[in-house]
Amino acid sequence: MDYQQLVESITISIRGKIIMETRDEGCGIWPLLLKNTRFYPACVWHDHAYTEDSWAQNNYGRLNTDRWFLKQSLEIAGGSIYHKARAYLFFGLARVFGKIFWEGKN
Predict the structure, then answer these.
(1) Residues 44-97 pLDDT 10s
(2) 49, 60, 83, 93: which has the fewest C-beta neighbours closer than 10 Å?
(3) pLDDT for the residue 14
(4) Domain limits, the chain
(5) What is the pTM assigned to this prediction?
(6) SS3 sequence, 14-70?
């Protein structure tokens, strides 16, 4: 399996029960879903955090979930000004459009 196939679909299961599948996740929304990006791990975490009854929804709320997403993205960006700008762009898009996808109460 090459990198692209791995990025296209990662499934994690425990005792046969799927706990995470990344086939439809990434940075952005379909049809502008970016999978081959350095921020992919942070984006997948963010997608799962937006899922109804997730730990993040029950304990963080949307604003703090988005802040954690930004924190992870900035760590991934390292010292690159370009990648830091992209991290803030993804954060801004999450803040503007995320309410549509947030499955929790707040």
Answers:
(1) 888 888 887 888 888 888 999 999 999 999 999 999 999 999 999 889 989 998
(2) 93
(3) 47
(4) 3-101
(5) 0.71
(6) ECCEEEEECCCCCECCCCCCECCCCCHHHHHHHHHHCCCCCHHHHHCHHHHHHHHHH
Distance CA 67, CA 95 (A): 9
d(CA 73, CA 13): 26
Top mean pLDDT of 13-17, 22-26, 49-53 is at 49-53
**Paired residues of 14 in beta bridges:** 17
Q: Residue 23 burial (CB < 10 Å; 0-12/13-18/19+)?
A: exposed
